[in-house]
């Protein structure tokens, strides 16, 4: 996504661009693509949307470690106090960001088994609570109870959607590194392990709350059987570290891609793995993240307030993703309009409902991701504008082909044996330094 061209006009004449059989969807996609490319306003709007979504994900790189580690440490907050839990969380976050420089290449093999154990733990505990306390909560799968719930609670039911939405946060983070896995592996792992374990865990907590409604403040740890409390705490702590690491690495990867597109100030990008290209470390961004996470934990102190900010960031990112995905379905995948319409209206309606509920938490912490995203969007937008202006200046002052022919035919020009390579951002033109 860039205002600077990344394709030469001659590329459109290649046969590879004409392999598709002309159809109604193909012609419509080409027409829409030409309109978008020919409209300066449309290109700016798409760029701002992409930058805003990127800024939201970068903001999640700050909120995810804070809420994940603080949630895991909350298991000991009842005995040590909330201030002690916040202090321990800050110390853990400082260590986590300090070791980023070493990369995850040597310890990455342990991430999947730990997360698998975590899913087995929460799924097993959920089944235990379900059969022990109230198996009747399975009736909640009946869509009729959705209508009954909102009819009974009215506005309070709508406001509660802000908390309900937190059950699916984290799903947006997996899109950052999908390229490392094939489609089948993702489908199998999500459908057979991740989704069932999470659903059963929440069902078990619902059954537990039916028996002990007064323990809603710390439901997860209160619902864990006593013999499994400390093993669950250890696994939860390890899973929180891995979840934080995944979001931090995803933010590094996105920033690295933004730098390549000229949409982020140039910073030093260190590749921490000799096998995997996507594993990068950005020192300046890393320490800015660390300071921001420490400030967030010290200022909010509880996961409840951080949840308000986290939910706002996630739903904003999802809305932008749905919008851009719908455009991709039309232009690149060439899907029919009714399919795209069903997708956009269906998911868009659900996301707008959740977003409207999250807006009520704006003053309670929801302002943080909005303000940070607007700041990052301004920085990235200004940087890209300057990058584009420099490109246009170099384009106007490019070395002409007539000058190159004159130099080539000039017998007074002494030639040094060998081949010289000049890096050039302007497609199809010689570097301006060639004059010297």
TrEMBL record:
GO molecular function: potassium ion transmembrane transporter activity
Pfam families linked: K_trans
UniProt keyword terms in alphabetical order: Ion transport, Membrane, Potassium, Potassium transport, Transmembrane, Transmembrane helix, Transport
Domain K+ potassium transporter integral membrane: start-end pairs: 34-401
Single GO cellular component term: plasma membrane
Localization, UniProt: Cell membrane; Membrane
Family designation: Belongs to the HAK/KUP transporter (TC 2.A.72.3) family.
The protein, known as: Potassium transporter
Organism: Glycine soja
């Amino acid at each position: 996504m860039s205002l600077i061209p990344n394709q030469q006009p001659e590329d459109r004449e290649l046969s590879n661009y004409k392999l598709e059989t002309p159809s109604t969807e193909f012609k419509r996609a080409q027409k829409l693509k030409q309109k978008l490319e020919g409209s300066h306003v449309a290109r700016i709007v798409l760029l701002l949307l992409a930058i805003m979504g990127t800024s939201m994900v970068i903001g999640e790189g700050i909120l995810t470690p804070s809420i994940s580690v603080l949630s895991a440490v909350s298991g000991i907050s009842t005995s040590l106090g909330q201030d002690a839990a916040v202090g321990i969380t800050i110390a853990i976050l400082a260590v986590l960001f300090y070791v980023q420089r070493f990369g995850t290449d040597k310890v990455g093999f342990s991430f999947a088994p730990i997360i698998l154990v975590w899913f087995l733990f929460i799924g097993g505990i959920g089944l235990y609570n379900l059969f022990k306390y109230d198996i009747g909560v399975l009736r909640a799968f009946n869509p009729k109870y959705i209508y009954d719930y909102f009819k009974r609670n009215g506005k309070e039911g709508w406001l509660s959607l802000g908390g309900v939405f937190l059950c699916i946060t984290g799903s947006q983070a997996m899109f950052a590194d999908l390229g490392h896995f094939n489609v089948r592996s993702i489908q199998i792992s999500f459908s057979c392990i991740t989704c069932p374990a999470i659903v059963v865990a929440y069902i078990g907590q619902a059954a537990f709350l039916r028996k002990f409604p007064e323990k809603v403040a710390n439901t997860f740890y209160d619902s864990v059987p006593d013999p499994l409390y400390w093993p669950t705490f250890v696994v939860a702590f390890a899973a929180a570290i891995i979840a934080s690491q995944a979001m931090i690495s995803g933010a590094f990867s996105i920033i690295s891609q933004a730098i390549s597109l000229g949409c982020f100030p140039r910073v030093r990008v260190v590749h921490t793995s000799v096998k995997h290209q996507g594993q990068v470390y950005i020192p300046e961004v890393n320490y800015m993240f660390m300071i921001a996470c420490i400030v967030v934990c010290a200022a909010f102190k509880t996961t409840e307030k951080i949840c308000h900010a986290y939910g706002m960031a996630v739903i904003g990112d999802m809305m932008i993703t749905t919008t851009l995905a719908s455009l991709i379905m039309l232009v690149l995948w060439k899907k029919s309009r009714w399919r795209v319409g069903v997708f956009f209206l269906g998911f868009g309606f659900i996301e707008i409902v959740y977003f409207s509920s999250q807006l009520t938490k704006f003053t309670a912490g929801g302002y943080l991701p909005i303000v940070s995203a607007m700041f990052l969007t301004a920085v990235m937008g200004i940087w890209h504008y300057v990058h584009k202006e420099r490109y246009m200046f170099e384009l106007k002052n490019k070395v002409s082909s007539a000058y190159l022919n004159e130099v080539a035919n000039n017998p007074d020009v002494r030639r040094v044996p060998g081949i010289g390579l000049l890096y050039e951002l302007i497609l199809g033109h010689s570097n301006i330094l060639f004059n010297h």
